[in-house]
């Protein structure tokens, strides 16, 4: 199973194919996801420090503007990776929104 390192939080073993936003949330990372995983709000952005992920989805292409930023609701964990959440419940004081679908 892939190892996911989340800067500032820890290292976790994640089932291959898990949506990244859910892997983060299920391991206690208070990532925002205000639109419920529909690639509309960009609050679930993560900075990719290491690891390979699928190509940008059409929703990501329209919503992200920096090379290392991805929407965690649009990618799945396929191998070992290191990421850093950009926005969290704690850092913004906002509620996370509805849980994204698997």
Automatic annotation (TrEMBL):
Residues 2-89 form the 2Fe-2S ferredoxin-type domain. Gene3D superfamilies: 3.10.20.30. GO terms for molecular function: iron-sulfur cluster binding. It comes from the Bacteria. InterPro entries: 2Fe-2S_ferredoxin-like_sf, 2Fe-2S_ferredoxin-type, Beta-grasp_dom_sf. SUPFAM superfamilies: 2Fe-2S ferredoxin-like. PROSITE patterns: 2FE2S_FER_2. This is Peptide ABC transporter substrate-binding protein.
């Amino acid at each position: 199973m892939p190892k996911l390192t989340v800067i500032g939080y820890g290292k976790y073993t994640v089932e291959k194919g898990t949506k990244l936003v859910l892997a983060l949330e299920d391991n206690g990372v208070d990532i925002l996801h205000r639109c419920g995983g529909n690639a509309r709000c960009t609050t679930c952005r993560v900075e990719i420090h290491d690891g390979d992920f699928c190509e940008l989805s059409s929703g990501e292409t329209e919503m992200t503007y920096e090379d290392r930023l991805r929407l965690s609701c649009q990618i799945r964990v396929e191998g070992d990776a290191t990421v850093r959440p950009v926005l969290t419940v704690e850092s913004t004081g906002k509620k996370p929104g509805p849980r994204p679908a698997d």
